[in-house]
Amino acid sequence: MRKCIAIILTLTLSTALVRAQTPSNDSAAVSTRFVAYDVFIDAGDTPLAAYQVDINDLSGRTKIVGVEGGESTAFDAPPYYDPKALYNEGRIILGAFTTNNDGPTGRTRVARLHMQINGEQPADFDVKVIVAADADNRDIDADVTITEGNQ
Fold this sequence. Notes:
By secondary structure, the chain is mostly beta strands. 13% of the residues lie in helices and 40% in strands. The strands form 2 sheets. Strands 3-5-1-7 form a 4-stranded antiparallel beta sheet, with no helix packed on it. A 3-stranded antiparallel beta sheet has the order 4-2-6, with no helix packed on it. The chain is elongated.
């Protein structure tokens, strides 16, 4: 009798372990994709010399996996950020400055974020300019936008 119970328990545990390790074909499984997002600042006619922006994904489905610099020579190096932000779920504060008088005017890409997104829906970003300044350290009006891909 004990041998029969031991065999039944062994078979039950083995079946449970196999089921736990078998990938699910459940239609509710969430796909993961990687997307680049470009961060743009529009400083109008004033040359942009420094900025700090707060980017937060409200959907809660993203993870930042990389940060690149922008397109102008003033901001082609990756912006400053806390590396721990790469462990947060979709929130980062970026900042950069230039000591030269070569700040870009108008709309320019200042950074590119690489993100891992769970699901097919696009991320929902809340993006704010914390500060934007000219070469004389005066605050300037600037708008920040974030777009998917190379736009």
